[in-house]
């Protein structure tokens, strides 16, 4: 593989054709392009199940534009797949042959099971949930899977999507104004979904939604509540919030939906049908919440290719893989970052009695410590500000929006005043106790950074003892000259007192035991 291989995945769906392009370096990957065009490939397929000439022309024009992007970006590998519309089309062979002649692309037609599997593969590489349902709503089909302990257990491809439901259940009456027969759709969906017995009886298992319909429902809800962070990945909606959003949009005309903030205009006429699929699946499955996944089928196909190239474990710890990838992408000095994380966590563990925080906060500290230097890639000057921005707007696998904000604030922390200024636009995401938690975690990180100020890993470990209202910190060094580290660590006394209400002293012990 080339040092800078570029990989494109083209997903030809029933409603849209989308393309993502990833750049793969030796040990990293990152998204460099994401584009889509609404082509309505399954429009008016009818009982004869054929792709109509107008839809073909729209698709071919879109693919020609995508190929120009691939050529200009010097993409080496293209993975083209087609889903429901092409899968169901009786003129599939004729259509794909024309596509091949005009674009030189040989599309692989995914089965319903494969479509569900690649959506699942994208999800588990972007989230850390051990168990869940996934739902991928297309224009002409909807894929549902159930996974347990991060292994695929069940899947089904249902022969309806947002576009085909809209066409099938549009009110034919002259006074219908193009509105949908909502009761008829609900009845149809309930019967179709509940016929899959494995979907019911799993109360408490979340539904993970992927695809444009789900993202648009979530975006509408974010606009309604004036949510401060413009990020779809790992956005969570309760069942009640899904119901409230659906109650709102089902009262609007198509014209009103087209003007609705948060909703793509090209989905205005099909969003209600798509939303009803989400709502009905949550009712049948008993899912208490909808979690939005920014990863889906295209990412699943990319990760399959990536793991084939690198021989990596597709079902490993996605958070660890993501943090490692982020460090490499931003040119972080990995050994230093890992050592700072090690010292941060050791201080956290040794001082558990004075902070009373849990395992989740420990994880946030470790992530912040490993990624605290990413802002230097933007500029050394004001690197904390750049670190904060990068981490806040990076979809760190497995972290909620609140946790992502906390990691960004811990990594970039300078003072409580500065923290309040940076977090002010996002106060809606934080809990009342989070400010103190962030302050405590920040002190551990600042002390650990000070203890490896020379990037030499001379201070290998720490132990702490609390006695008579004071903390004694013993640092174990492989080098007798750690005056730099002791000086900088000693300058954090005031911050330590503010965070924990007591002072500390530093003592050095020489050791020959290198822990890393």
How do the strands and helices of this protein lay out in sequence?
Layout: E1 5-12, E2 16-24, E3 29-38, H1 53-72, E4 77-82, H2 84-88, H3 92-103, E5 108-109, H4 112-124, E6 132-137, E7 142-148, E8 151-158, H5 162-168, H6 182-194, E9 207-210, H7 212-225, E10 236-238, H8 239-249, H9 254-258, H10 271-285, E11 289-292, H11 297-310, H12 318-329, H13 334-350, H14 352-355, H15 359-371, H16 383-392, H17 401-411, H18 416-423, H19 434-451, E12 459-467, E13 470-477, H20 483-490, H21 493-500, E14 503-510
Helix pairs in contact: 1-3, 4-11, 5-10, 6-10, 7-8, 7-10, 8-10, 13-15, 13-19, 15-17, 15-19, 16-17, 17-19, 19-20, 19-21
Please give a quick description of this structure.
One of its GO terms (biological process) is regulation of transcription by RNA polymerase II. GO terms for molecular function: hydrolase activity. The chain is α/β, with parallel strands linked by helices and 516 residues long.
Give the total of domains: 3
Number-wise, the strands total 14
Q: Strand-residue fraction?
A: 15-25%
> Which topology of the largest domain does CATH recognise?
Hypothetical protein af1432
> Strand order within the widest sheet?
8-7-6-9-11-10
Weakly predicted, low-confidence segments: none
Rounded average pLDDT: 93
| Global shape | elongated
Distance from first to last alpha carbon = 31 Å
Q: Specify Rg, calculated over alpha carbons.
A: 26 Å
CATH architecture of the largest domain: Orthogonal Bundle
**Percentage of residues in helical conformation:** 40-55%
Tally of alpha and pi helices: 21
What summary fits the major beta sheet? 6 strands, mixed
Going by helix content, strand content and strand pairing, the class is alpha/beta
CATH class of the largest domain: Mainly Alpha
């Amino acid at each position: 593989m080339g040092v800078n291989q570029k990989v494109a995945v083209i997903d030809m769906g029933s409603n849209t054709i989308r393309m993502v392009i990833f750049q793969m370096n030796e040990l990293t990957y990152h998204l460099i392009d994401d584009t889509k065009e609404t082509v309505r490939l399954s429009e008016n397929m009818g009982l004869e199940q054929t792709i109509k000439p107008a839809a073909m022309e729209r698709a071919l024009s879109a693919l020609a534009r995508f190929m120009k992007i691939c050529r200009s970006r010097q993409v080496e590998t293209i993975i083209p797949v087609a889903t429901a519309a092409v899968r169901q089309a009786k003129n599939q062979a004729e259509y794909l042959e024309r596509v091949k002649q005009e674009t030189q692309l040989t599309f692989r037609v995914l089965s319903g099971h494969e479509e569900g599997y690649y959506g699942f593969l994208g999800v588990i590489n972007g989230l850390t949930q051990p168990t869940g349902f996934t739902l991928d709503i297309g224009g002409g089909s909807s894929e549902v899977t159930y996974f347990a302990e991060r292994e695929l257990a069940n899947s089904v491809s249902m022969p309806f999507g947002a576009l085909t439901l809209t066409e099938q259940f549009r009110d034919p009456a002259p006074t219908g104004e193009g509105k949908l027969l909502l009761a008829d759709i609900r009845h149809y969906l309930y019967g179709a979904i509940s016929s899959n017995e494995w979907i019911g009886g799993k109360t408490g298992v979340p539904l993970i939604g992927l695809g444009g319909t789900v993202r648009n429902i979530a975006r509408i809800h974010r606009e309604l509540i004036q949510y401060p962070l413009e990020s779809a990945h790992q956005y969570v909606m309760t069942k009640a919030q899904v119901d409230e959003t659906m109650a709102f949009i089902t009262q609007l005309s198509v014209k009103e939906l087209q003007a609705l903030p948060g909703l793509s205009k090209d989905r205005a006429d099909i969003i209600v049908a798509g939303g009803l699929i989400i709502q009905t699946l949550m009712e049948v499955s008993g899912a208490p919440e909808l979690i939005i996944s920014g990863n889906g089928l295209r990412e699943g196909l990319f990760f399959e290719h990536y793991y084939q190239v690198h021989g990596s474990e597709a079902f490993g710890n996605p958070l660890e893989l993501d943090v490692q990838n982020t460090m490499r992408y931003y040119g972080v000095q990995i050994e230093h970052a890992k050592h700072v994380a090690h010292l941060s966590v050791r201080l956290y563990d040794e001082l558990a009695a004075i902070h009373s925080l849990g395992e989740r906060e420990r994880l946030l500290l470790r992530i912040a410590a490993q990624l605290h230097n990413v802002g230097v890639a933007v500029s050394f000057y004001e690197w904390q500000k750049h670190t904060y921005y990068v981490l806040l707007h990076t979809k760190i696998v497995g972290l909620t929006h609140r946790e992502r904000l906390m990691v960004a604030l811990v990594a970039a922390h300078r003072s409580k005043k500065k923290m309040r200024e940076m977090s002010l636009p996002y106060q809606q995401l934080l809990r009342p106790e989070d400010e103190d938690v962030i302050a405590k975690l920040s002190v551990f990180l600042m002390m650990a950074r000070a203890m490896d100020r020379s990037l030499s890993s001379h201070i290998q470990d720490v132990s702490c003892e609390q006695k008579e209202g004071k903390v004694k910190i013993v640092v174990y060094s492989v080098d007798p000259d750690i005056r730099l580290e002791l000086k900088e660590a000693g300058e954090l006394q005031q911050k330590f007192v503010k965070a924990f209400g007591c002072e500390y002293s530093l003592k050095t012990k020489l050791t020959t035991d290198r822990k890393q």
